[in-house]
Task: inverse folding
């Protein structure tokens, strides 16, 4: 994780409007227990509670992600968004829809504006699928889904 943090800190000038970047790994339900033991933390449910109390946000108090076929927990992130490590992007309705669309199409997908955690700023999330091998330009959605390793995320705040 330190390498990712250092790289993103060192190259932040290349993303002037970005609050942070993160990487979420694709984890199946059958891999969850082994994954959590290896990481030393539980995959957390993405919550959309009262964002007015952002100073009280504490990831340790978040509930575990519900049981589902697959998860997309954040495993690497820029220091500016370190509070999102362990949060499952597949447990948030809009994020899940965007992840599924990004991996099936091979294109970036943007959320609607929302209040960012730990700030009072509006922001958007841009998600790209990361594949485990080079895909042909005419790859089918099924080929893209099968090749998905995880998801690169840019968090842009205003």
Result:
């Amino acid at each position: 994780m330190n390498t990712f943090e250092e790289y993103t800190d060192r190259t932040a000038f290349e993303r002037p409007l970005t609050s942070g970047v993160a990487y979420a790994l694709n984890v199946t339900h059958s891999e969850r227990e082994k994954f959590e033991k290896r990481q030393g933390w539980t995959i957390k449910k993405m919550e959309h509670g009262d964002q007015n109390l952002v100073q009280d946000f504490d990831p340790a108090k978040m509930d575990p992600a519900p049981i589902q076929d697959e998860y997309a927990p954040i495993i690497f992130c820029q220091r500016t968004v370190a509070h999102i490590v362990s949060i499952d992007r597949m447990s948030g309705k809009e994020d899940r829809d965007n992840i599924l669309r990004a991996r099936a199409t091979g294109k970036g997908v943007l959320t609607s504006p929302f209040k960012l955690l730990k700030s009072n700023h509006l922001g958007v999330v841009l998600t790209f699928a990361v594949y485990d091998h080079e895909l042909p330009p005419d790859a089918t959605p099924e080929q893209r889904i099968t090749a998905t390793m995880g998801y690169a995320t840019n968090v842009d705040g205003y």
Remarks:
- The chain has four helices and ten strands.
- Residues 50-54 have pLDDT under 50 and may be disordered.
- The beta strands are 18-25, 27-28, 44-45, 70-71, 74-77, 87-88, 109-110, 114-115, 122-131, 148-157.
- Helices lie at 2-10, 32-39, 93-105, 141-147.
